[in-house]
């Protein structure tokens, strides 16, 4: 009776228990896994016929040497669970598989056998097109090591996303917010939507380019007053006027070059400028017959003495010939730096200096008096509002001066 209970393959006559494949279209056709895989055909049975798996579900797919001893039925439940709950929901998948499998065992078995195993290598390509990339920064954004949390809030900076509350071209997303894909659209409408997407991509690239520049040149710490690079660099050596002017001229290249590239370019151009100046100096020495460095030092000392003597002679000649003029200009030392001084004549300068009156106030009073005089001559009554700083003595002195200078008639004054 024991021999009669054994099942045999109808093709190779080998024992097929506990697993066999039964044809659902032919009677009494049961094949072993080897013959079924080879596509064996016998009688009216064909390889494309439907089949039914006849087993007790306790055999292993990966062999007895695989750790954990997962049976065929558990593997089938695992694949059903991954399709139903999705990758990562290991607790729900473990409950679906049952048989006292823990979430950790389910995760390790699926990753080892179906992702990193031979099946995963054969089915999962190395590069997946249109794969979603995680752009978040778990360790903090590029600016996080340099600025504190309070400073991030001040800048509106989100370190995990490497974004700001207000980005460059903040309304760029409006180009694509209203887009939708409809399969019955015409080609013109589809191309128009593609153009909108291209415009949006260009704006995103420009936004990222500006972020890279700000990061590379440490603009955020500089905005917060924390950029010590310039101070340390200036403390190491004295920055000359030529270096400042050259760096100012090259500022337009900041947006086209990285910080290190710009520094290398600046150093090279400054060295070239210094070399050209040194070459001109050596050519001047050669023109004056100097061929040795020692002789050039003596020549520079003598040239400095000659220039000093010329300066002393020029100062002495100016003191001898222009002493009177210098003394006259010294009278106006109190008002010569005030606004409106260049508008006054020499006599008006003397008057303002004697009255201790600023040129602007004098011009204001002169304008008021002359306007009143002209209106009275035309028979128009005039009663101008005089400034508060004008007293009777000051008004009388200015009116006498204007009368003597011929600005107003004596009767009117």
What order do the helices and strands come in, and which of them pair?
Blueprint: E1 20-23, E2 30-31, H1 33-38, E3 51-54, H2 72-85, H3 90-97, H4 103-115, H5 118-123, H6 149-155, E4 157-158, E5 163-164, H7 187-216, H8 219-223, H9 229-236, H10 241-249, H11 259-287, H12 293-321, H13 323-330, H14 346-355, H15 359-377, H16 392-405
Antiparallel strand pairs: 1-2, 1-3, 4-5
Helix pairs in contact: 2-3, 3-4
Please provide a written account of the structure:
By secondary structure, the chain is mainly alpha-helical. Among the domains are: 20-54, no CATH class; 72-123, Homeodomain-like (Arc Repressor Mutant, subunit A), CATH 1.10.10.60; 149-223; 254-306, no CATH class; 341-405, Arc Repressor Mutant, subunit A. It is built from 16 helices and 5 strands. The chain has helices at residues 33-38, 72-85, 90-97, 103-115, 118-123, 149-155, 187-216, 219-223, 229-236, 241-249, 259-287, 293-321, 323-330, 346-355, 359-377, 392-405; strands spanning 20-23, 30-31, 51-54, 157-158, 163-164. It has a 3-stranded antiparallel β-sheet. Strands 4-5 form a two-stranded antiparallel ribbon. A hairpin with a 4-residue loop joins strand 4 and strand 5 (163-164). Helix 2 (72-85) packs antiparallel against helix 3 and helix 3 packs across helix 4 (103-115). It is elongated, with a radius of gyration of 49 Å. It comes from Bos mutus grunniens. One of its GO terms (cellular component) is nucleus. Residues 65-118 form the SANT domain. It is found in: Nucleus. This is Transcriptional adapter.
């Amino acid at each position: 009776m024991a021999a009669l209970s054994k099942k045999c393959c109808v093709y190779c006559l080998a024992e097929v228990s506990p697993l066999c494949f039964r044809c659902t279209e032919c009677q009494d056709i049961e094949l072993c896994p080897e013959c079924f895989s080879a596509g064996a055909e016998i009688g009216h049975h064909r390889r494309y016929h439907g089949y039914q798996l006849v087993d007790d579900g306790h055999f292993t797919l990966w062999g007895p040497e695989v750790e954990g001893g997962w049976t065929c039925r558990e593997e089938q439940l695992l694949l059903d669970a991954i399709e139903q709950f999705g990758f990562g929901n290991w607790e729900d998948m473990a409950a679906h598989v049952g048989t006292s499998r823990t979430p950790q065992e389910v995760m390790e078995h699926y990753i080892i056998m179906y992702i990193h195993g031979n099946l995963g290598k054969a089915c999962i390509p190395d590069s997946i097109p249109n794969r979603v990339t995680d752009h978040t920064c778990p360790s903090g954004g590029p600016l996080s090591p340099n600025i504190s949390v309070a400073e991030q809030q001040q800048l509106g900076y989100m370190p995990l996303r490497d974004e700001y509350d207000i980005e460059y071209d903040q309304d760029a997303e409006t180009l694509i917010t209203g887009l939708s894909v409809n399969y019955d659209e015409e080609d013109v409408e589809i191309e128009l939507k593609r153009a909108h997407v291209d415009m949006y991509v260009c704006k995103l690239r420009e936004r990222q380019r500006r972020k890279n520049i700000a990061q590379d040149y440490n603009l955020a710490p500089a905005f917060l007053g924390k950029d010590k690079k310039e101070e340390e660099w200036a403390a190491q050596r004295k920055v000359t006027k030529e270096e400042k002017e050259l760096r100012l001229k090259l500022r337009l290249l900041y947006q086209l070059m990285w910080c290190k590239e710009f520094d290398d370019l600046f150093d090279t151009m400054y060295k070239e400028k210094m070399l050209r100046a040194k070459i001109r100096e050596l050519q001047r020495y050669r023109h004056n017959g100097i061929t040795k460095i020692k002789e050039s030092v003596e020549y520079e000392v003598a040239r400095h003495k000659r220039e000093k003597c010329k300066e002393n002679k020029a100062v002495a000649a100016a003191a001898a010939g222009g002493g009177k003029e210098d003394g006259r200009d010294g009278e106006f030392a109190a008002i010569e730096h005030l606004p409106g001084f260049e508008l006054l004549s020499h006599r008006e300068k003397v008057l303002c200096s004697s009255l201790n009156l600023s040129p602007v106030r004098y011009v204001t009073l002169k304008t008021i008096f002359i306007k009143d005089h002209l209106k009275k001559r035309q028979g128009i009554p005039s009663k101008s509002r005089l400034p508060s700083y004008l007293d009777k003595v000051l008004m009388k002195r200015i009116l006498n001066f204007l009368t003597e200078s011929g600005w107003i008639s004596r009767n009117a004054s």
